[in-house]
Amino acid sequence: MLHLVSYRAFQEWLIANFVGIEFSLSPELVAGFDELLPAGADAETRLLCAVGFWHP
Fold this sequence. Notes:
mainly alpha, 0% strand
């Protein structure tokens, strides 16, 4: 179930980004993955980098 929920959330972000709509992932989703990511940027950016959806 976690895979399905996270996949859908990332797809929502990707579609919104593609069409130019401001969109943020839920704080709960970001916090759930936050502990697995390196420090240095805000939590949402690090999460998106980790899964390949954000390229600074």
